[in-house]
Amino acid sequence: MNHETNLGWARWKSPLRALRAFLQAPAARRRPEAPQPTAQERSERALGRISLAIILGLLALSGRNAAASEWPDKPVKIVIPFAAGGATDLLGRALANELGKIWKQSVVVDNRPGAGGALGAEVVAKSPSDGYTLLLASGSMFTVNPHIYSKLPYSTRSFELITKVASGPMVVTVNSDLPARNMQELIAYAKANPAKVNFASAGNGSQVHMAGESFADATGIDITHIAYKGEGPAYADLLAGVVQMAVGNINAISPLLKTGKIRALAVTGKERVALLPEVPTVAEAGLSNYDFTGWFALVAPASTPTALTDRIDASVRQAVAQPGMKRYLAEQGMTATLSPKGKLGDEINNETERWKVLVSKRKISAN
Predict the structure, then answer these.
(1) Environment class of residue 168 by beta-carbon count within 10 Å: exposed (0-12), middle (13-18) or buried (19+)?
(2) What CATH number does the domain containing 352 carry?
(3) In whole angstroms, what is the distance from residue 60 CA to residue 83 CA?
(4) Which of 142, 169, 195, 200 has the fewest CB atoms within 10 Å, measured from its CB?
(5) Residues of the chain with pLDDT under 50
(6) In a domain, 243, yes or no
């Protein structure tokens, strides 16, 4: 290397070392230190973040309220978790008709039967929380099913519990070929023929199922449960003599009494009903330790905005107060039964304990 080259290298050697040292230094050491904010600046920044959060929250709330005020701008669907022709279905159609008038929008009924109402409940639980898909549930779906199914695709937490809608007693019925013209004859026949009387239900865990189980427990008889996907199919087989007995919802089974092939022995409430004035109560028929009332409630998917559920609740109260709905419920042996606001969950919890005891005692399982 000649003298000029040595001189050139010497000129660049020191700057290169400095550059290498800079590149190898940690990033934190390369950056010039930023001046620390003052206490006032930190306070202003915190206040800015809080203000932004409040603004975003108000915008979200305003969007929800706007959506609620515009709802419904398309048809609303009420899922019935049992087959057509049963009590839940009949009540659901009557309610849908009244709500449609109030909302000035179509309200359609969608039957999704199976698994004691669990299939329909799952459909609604997985639906958008926008108020356009609702569930008319029978009480047993929340009070009984958790005790008899090892895995349920829903729980009360899957829904916004809006309100009970209606309730009513049931009626003990038999096929007319069975040699039992009153309650005492039915009990005597069942005791003389253990496990030979088959009773139909709308599915495992349904109110019709539990009404039958409660009746067997109160009378000490041994009867065999046959589950169907809804009351319609169950009563068709009762009519045909395939099964011999059912403790059914009055509004669903009463039209079949006119055929003469089904006999009503007693209603399960404390008073007779206008629809079946000649049929005694179970107490009048000699069974004082048994009564059963079925009920139905309207719920929405979890996280449905409160503004919407409040509006639906108010609409249900308005619907059941209409003269036509009042008349319909009375004709069906039912009464409007509205939950105090926010109390449906408490009512379910209280009733659940009662059924837990019976399920355990009678070893009822749907698994």
Answers:
(1) buried
(2) 3.40.190.150
(3) 40
(4) 195
(5) 1-13, 15-16, 19, 22, 27-30, 62, 66
(6) yes
Asked if 285 contacts 266 with a C-beta cutoff of 8 angstroms, the reply is yes
Statement to judge: residues 239 and 307 lie in one domain: no
Omega into 72 within 30° of 0, i.e. cis? yes
* Contact indicator for 207, 290 with CB cutoff of 8 Å: no
Question: What length does the chain have?
Answer: 367
DSSP for 1-52, please give it. Answer: --HHHHHHHHHHHHHHHHHHHHHHS-HHHHSPPPPPPPHHHHHHHHHHHHHH
Helices 344-362/207-219 angle, 10° precision: 50
DSSP state of 304: -
Tens digits of per-residue pLDDT, 72-93? 999 999 999 998 988 899 999 9
Amino acid, single-letter form, for residue 20: R
DSSP labels, 153-215: S--GGGEEEEEEEEEEEEEEEEETTSS-SSHHHHHHHHHHSTT--EEEESSTT-HHHHHHHHH
Which residue range(s) make up the domain with 153? Answer: 70-167+295-362
Answer positive or negative: Cα dihedral of 345, 228, 333, 354: negative
Sequence-distant (6+) residues with CB within 8 A of 37 are: 45
Name which of 75, 76, 77, 78 is nearest 88 in CA terms.
78
